[in-house]
Write a structure and sequence with these properties.
The structure is a single chain. The chain is mainly alpha-helical and 291 residues long. It has a single domain (12-289), classed as Formate dehydrogenase/DMSO reductase fold (Up-down Bundle). The chain is 82% helix and 0% strand. The protein has helices spanning 12-33, 39-68, 71-79, 87-117, 126-157, 161-164, 168-191, 197-224, 227-239, 241-264, 268-289. α9 crosses α10. The radius of gyration is 20 Å and the shape is globular.
């Protein structure tokens, strides 16, 4: 029987890794589920979101390599299955799989963008059409696994009541969804030509729903903690050095957004999305930091 480690085996860099995996997985899920029907706009949004997810996961891989101190060890974690009990190893495999799928999808999107620019809206070749249809679905499944993976990793290694709680997987999933939908809002704004006026409205509505759902999940988790566990969590939230920094970041961001909204004009949605990303990221980091 495996027991959680009494002392935290990782530093703050792995906390950043947990935050970034949530953002990358949430963004892929959001762009998949909120994909507009206009093919030109959808391709442009997918192009930006896929590059963003790929860059984020590249940073995650660098963090793991830095933590391992030897690139060869990361390669062995990805390619070998000798140590199937290592959840960190499974995380590296999931990241590598998603990076590969993102690379394939970028190649398909590149061909798609060229075809659309030439006035062709069809995909030539049955195999190409099949891959183009299958890869986004596979990315969504892998992203779902990556979103909740930290809950299992932390419950295996941490002594934190929050990480061991049965609802921690839902917290990680909902926080990833908030970050992903907020990132999708930003991507729609960057894309510029959303194609349909409803695309941006759907993204904003989805962000509001995800924030509410995340708050509900946090509320149920807080209510279901045992008295001793709840007291331990509250003590860490009020006295822990890392968590104090997180709450300071969340509070200062909320105040800055509230004070700046009148001057933001059309950029209010981007400000709200940025605040949602920071708050959800802080939530993931707090669960990591509680020990």
């Amino acid at each position: 029987m495996n027991h959680p480690l009494a002392e935290p085996p990782w530093g703050p860099s792995i906390g950043l890794y947990i935050v970034l995996t949530g953002f990358a997985s949430g963004l892929s899920l959001a762009t998949y589920l909120l994909r507009p029907s206009d093919e030109r706009a959808a391709t442009r949004i997918d192009w930006i979101a896929t590059w963003t997810s790929l860059a984020t996961l590249a940073v995650c891989a660098l963090i793991v390599i830095s933590d391992l101190r030897r690139p060869a060890r990361f390669y062995l974690m990805v390619t070998q299955f000798a140590n199937t009990g290592s959840l960190m190893s499974w995380g590296a495999k999931i990241i590598a799989l998603k990076i590969g799928l993102l690379a394939v999808y970028l190649l398909l999107l590149r061909r798609r963008r060229r075809a659309i620019a030439a006035g062709d809206t069809t995909l030539t070749g049955r195999a190409t059409r099949a891959v183009y249809a299958a890869v986004p679905g596979a990315l969504a499944v892998v992203s779902l696994a990556l979103a909740i993976y930290p809950a299992f990793l932390l419950s295996w290694t941490w002594s934190s009541p929050a990480a061991h709680h049965a609802g921690s997987a839902l917290v990680f999933l909902s926080s990833a969804a908030v970050m992903g939908v907020a990132g999708s809002n930003a991507v729609v704004a960057i894309a510029g030509d959303a194609g349909e006026p409803s695309t941006a409205a759907r993204a904003r509505s989805a962000l509001l729903r995800m924030v509410v759902a995340h708050a509900v999940v946090l509320g149920f988790v807080a209510l279901s903690l045992q008295a001793g566990d709840a007291r331990s969590v509250l003590d860490e939230l009020s006295r822990g050095a890392w968590t104090r920094a997180c709450w300071l970041l969340v509070g200062s961001t909320g105040i800055a957004v509230a004070l700046g909204i009148p001057a933001l004009g059309d950029r209010r949605g981007l400000a709200a999305s940025g605040a949602a990303v920071i708050a959800a990221a802080a939530c993931r980091y707090v669960i990591f930091a509680l020990s």
